[in-house]
Specification:
2 domains, three-stranded antiparallel β-sheet, Integrase-like_cat_sf, mainly alpha, hpI Integrase, Chain A, DNA recombination, DNA_brk_join_enz
Length: 276
């Protein structure tokens, strides 16, 4: 989208990004995805981005990345790619700008802090958020889906890509029997992965109760039945791994959880689950 906004034709974009077979193209794609994630989180359109200062964008995107990833090497790689891309888009030489040099110096002389026990504290904040939030029936569709995704990751240890592949037609969810066995789309006809949804004593942290409420809403939305558990806004398409990651990352930012991402939730919940 960024390239097309600058006047590149479809053939030109294909030549630049699909015609080459070098590893640098792969890195550029990752950096473009990082830029797009930042735009989505900040709710900034391409037109609005083009009105911003290139040095501000470079700084904010690298700062956004370091909050999600504590690898200095990764930050340096993204910084190099973004510097080149933004220089082309804005027709500026960002590589020699004072801001770019300051970022290079910061990355070269300091490591990105990563506190050993910070994730345990983050999970406490996340769990307390759902304990203090409205009951499931009072949550809107978006918040209820975010809650389901975060609880499946932190309590049931699902991965984002697994949540996006949960199929209701293979699953066994029975509210009257208090049963919830979720199954992914089978990769082979005779290989269906089944995951039991764990229960907690706290109703506000119960994935089962949230799923029961959500399925009741799905029955209203899709009277003839539906396949996927989670859906994109407007119910126009099933949710994707990227949607889930963005939703949870947005929630973590709203809770002022620094240094955590959707992928770090499930890895740091064990200690807190032992207390439930």
């Amino acid at each position: 989208r960024c390239m097309k906004m600058r006047g590149f034709s479809e053939d030109g974009v294909n030549l630049l990004f699909k015609g080459q077979r070098f590893n640098t193209v792969k890195r550029d794609f990752y950096s473009l995805a990082l830029l797009q994630d930042w735009l989505d989180i900040e709710r900034i359109t391409i037109e609005e981005m083009m009105k911003k200062d290139a040095e501000v964008i470079l700084t904010e995107v690298i700062a956004f990345h370091t909050r999600q990833n504590n690898s200095v090497a990764s930050a340096k790689s993204h910084k190099a790619c973004l510097t080149t891309m933004l220089s082309l888009k804005y027709k500026e030489n960002l590589a020699s700008s004072p801001t770019s040099k300051l970022i290079n110096k910061a990355l070269a002389n300091a490591t990105i802090p990563h506190r050993r026990y910070q994730n345990n504290w983050n999970i406490q904040i996340l769990f307390n958020h759902w304990r203090q939030s409205k009951q499931n029936k009072y949550l809107n569709n978006y918040d209820l889906q975010v809650k389901i995704a975060s609880l499946l990751m932190s309590i049931c240890f699902f991965r984002p890509n697994e949540i996006a592949e949960i199929r209701l037609k293979f699953s066994n969810v029975d509210k009257t029997e208090n049963q919830a066995s979720l199954r992914l789309a089978p990769k082979q006809a005779n290989a269906i992965e089944t995951y039991e949804v764990y229960e907690t004593d706290n109703e506000e942290l119960s994935p089962k109760l949230a799923i029961y409420e959500w399925i009741d809403r799905l029955k209203i939305q899709f009277p003839k039945g539906t396949d996927f558990l989670l859906w994109h806004k407007g119910f126009n398409k099933p949710t994707t791994t990227k949607d889930i990651s963005l939703q949870l990352t947005k929630l973590l930012r709203e809770l002022k959880i620094i240094g955590a991402s959707a992928y770090s939730i499930r890895h740091s919940a064990t200690t807190e689950l032992a207390k439930l």
